[in-house]
């Protein structure tokens, strides 16, 4: 089996981590194909300045796996300064949010994480540096997990790509796969827009939010849904950077709002973990990015600019009047229940899906490919196989965010004028 050719479509988090773990196990014929001429792709979800690294999950499976990933992120020989352990403040105010926070705290505590529960709002404020003025956090409940923080996503993904090539894995850019080649009901290869054909014993589709629209023949329905998530950034002055640089990540499970400390360039990123937006073309939600629309592909709806600023005021009021330096609509591939999809496609032994990151996959970059490799080799525990099965019962909703996505209104996208500070 180790000599079988495996073609992975997509050089994002799932794709490169899978290739790495297969190569580490001795597979010799691993090739990654990616649509982009530059890798990582400019609009790849994992190609970003930062991503939260937390073990604070209400699901014990992810909490434990995240602890394993964090232990690996801390290996500076492997990852350099990619991971920054700033701590993660986990908050909630609504019944749903407090429930998620309480369950996460229970799991973190059971796994031996370094935690501090907040008995009142003033104890939340005390976690932050005194020079970084915060809001009152009135009505908020939660804790800080010191064993967490954030990772430079672009750097981490690029380093994993380098690890793949160092193990003699092939990564081919400008290979946009358009057709699955099948024989007797089994996928045996793929064809690209340039006419090139790649055959393999197994094709792994790991193209994230592009999965449903690129391969409508798979008829994935709501099992894989492309959703756009709103991101905004601030550029801090040198003095502001000095005051806020030692702040923790803040994540509010009632609103979905989260915000990072500034990176080395003084950029503060914030976003919302919510159902997001769909962009429907031919009845399938399709990513709308800077590559498909260079003019407005990064714009988010005006209403989200306003809510983002309101949420920001609820954490760092002194920053709420600053102009936003940029925005991005980051596209995820969501499953209904928030669990990933790692499974062969129905009765096709030659086709596998490794996708549906649902907005929380990147932190697992060092280990997520291990799950995929285990399933490829038939070495997974049955509970893991069923958890990530394509045809599983998805009646349960993602507990970290609830609701349904909204169709994107292209007439409501923000302009540069909308980014100016206005509290």
UniProtKB/TrEMBL annotation:
Pfam families associated with the record: DAO
Domain FAD dependent oxidoreductase as annotated: residue spans: 5-374
Keywords tagged on the record: FAD, Flavoprotein, Oxidoreductase
Single GO molecular function: L-pipecolate oxidase activity
Coiled coil: none
Cofactor(s) for this UniProt protein: FAD
Family note: Belongs to the MSOX/MTOX family.
PANTHER family noted in UniProt: PEROXISOMAL SARCOSINE OXIDASE
Protein name in UniProt: FAD dependent oxidoreductase
Species for this entry: Collybia nuda
């Amino acid at each position: 089996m180790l000599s079988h050719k495996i073609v992975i479509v997509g050089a994002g988090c799932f794709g490169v981590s899978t290739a790495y773990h297969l190569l580490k196990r001795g597979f010799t014929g691993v090739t990654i194909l990616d649509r982009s001429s530059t890798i990582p792709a400019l609009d790849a979800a994992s190609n970003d300045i930062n991503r939260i690294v937390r073990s604070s999950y209400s699901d014990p499976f992810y909490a434990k796996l995240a602890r394993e990933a964090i232990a690996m992120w801390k290996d500076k020989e492997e990852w350099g300064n990619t991971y920054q352990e700033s701590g993660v403040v986990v908050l909630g105010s609504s019944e749903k949010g407090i429930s998620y926070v309480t369950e996460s705290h229970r799991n973190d505590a059971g796994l031996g994480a370094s935690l501090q529960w907040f008995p009142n709002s003033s104890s939340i404020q005390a976690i932050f540096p005194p020079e970084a003025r915060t809001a009152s956090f009135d009505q908020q409940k939660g804790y800080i997990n010191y064993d967490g923080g954030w990772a430079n996503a672009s750097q981490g993904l690029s380093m994993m790509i380098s690890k793949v090539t160092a193990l003699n894995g092939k990564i081919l850019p400008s290979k946009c796969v358009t057709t699955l080649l099948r024989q007797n009901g089994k996928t045996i290869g793929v064809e690209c827009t340039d006419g090139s054909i790649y055959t393999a014993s197994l094709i792994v589709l790991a193209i994230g939010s592009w999965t449903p629209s690129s391969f409508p023949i798979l008829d994935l329905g709501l099992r894989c849904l492309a959703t756009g998530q709103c991101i905004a950034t601030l550029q801090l002055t040198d003095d502001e950077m000095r005051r806020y640089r030692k702040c923790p990540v803040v994540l509010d499970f009632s609103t979905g709002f989260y915000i990072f400390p500034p990176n080395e360039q003084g950029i503060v990123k914030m976003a919302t973990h919510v159902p997001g937006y769909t962009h429907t073309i031919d009845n399938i939600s399709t990513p709308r990015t800077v590559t498909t629309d260079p003019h407005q592909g990064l714009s988010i709806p005006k209403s989200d600019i306003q809510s983002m600023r309101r949420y920001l005021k609820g954490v760092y009021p002194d920053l709420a009047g600053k102009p936003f330096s940029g925005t991005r609509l980051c596209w995820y591939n969501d499953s209904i229940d928030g669990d990933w999809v790692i499974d062969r496609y129905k009765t096709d032994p030659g086709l596998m899906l490794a996708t549906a990151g649902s907005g929380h996959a990147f932190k697992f970059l060092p280990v997520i490919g291990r799950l995929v490799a285990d399933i490829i080799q038939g070495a997974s525990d049955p509970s893991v196989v069923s958890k990530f099965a394509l045809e599983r019962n998805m009646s349960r909703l993602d507990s970290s965010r609830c609701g349904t996505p909204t169709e994107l209104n292209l007439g409501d996208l923000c302009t540069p004028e909308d980014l100016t500070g206005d509290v």
